[in-house]
Amino acid sequence: MSLQRRTLWMAGVAVVAGGAGALLATRRLQLQPVVSEAEAAFWAGAYDGPNGEAVRLADFRGKPLLVNFWATWCPPCVEELPLLNAFHRAHQDKGWQVLGLAVDQPSAVRGFMQKLPLNFPVGMAGFAGTELSRSLGNPSGALPFSVVFDASGTLVHRKIGKVSETDLSQWAGLG
Fold first, then answer.
1. 65 within 8 A of 149, measured Cβ to Cβ
2. What pTM did the predictor assign?
3. Would you say 40 and 33 are in contact if contact means Cβ atoms under 8 Å apart?
4. Of 9, 104, 134, 161, which has the fewest beta carbons less than 10 angstroms from its beta carbon?
5. Helix, strand, coil in percent for the chain, rounding step 5
6. Residue 46: which pLDDT band, with cuts at 50, 70 and 90?
7. 68, 50, 69, 47: which is closest to 58 by C-alpha?
8. Tens digits of per-residue pLDDT, 55-111?
9. Half-sphere exposure for 95 (CA within 13 Å, toward CB)
């Protein structure tokens, strides 16, 4: 095989491999269908809060709920927490609830919340929170991940990645 043919063949293989890698990466960050029974399992869940208080998800039913999966070691998660705090303060009188599910160690979350107190409840989901987020359509368990439930408890929106003010404004209209 000539050098020119070998170069063309290698370039073709590289293009195919690059395309396959890009497709795989894109699919890993695309929302997937919610696993059957995932909503029921979500509402049956219960976690400890950072100080040992009970955080029962069933207690949040009946009002719109924004759930954010986050961790202290996740820079985009930390960046969006002030936005979520502001959303909670601005919309709690309109019936909205916000819940943080920390995919992290309790001690790390307690230390973080001393520096940045959160006005909304936080449940210590630990690494089981990754599986919960996967069942709700987050295929890779990427953080941050947010889900919105309407007042009837039905999942109506999901987002992988950092929320924006535009996202929050759109979601506020769902309640």
1. yes
2. 0.80
3. no
4. 9
5. 45, 20, 35
6. very high
7. 47
8. 999 999 999 999 999 999 999 999 999 999 999 999 999 999 999 999 999 999 999
9. 13
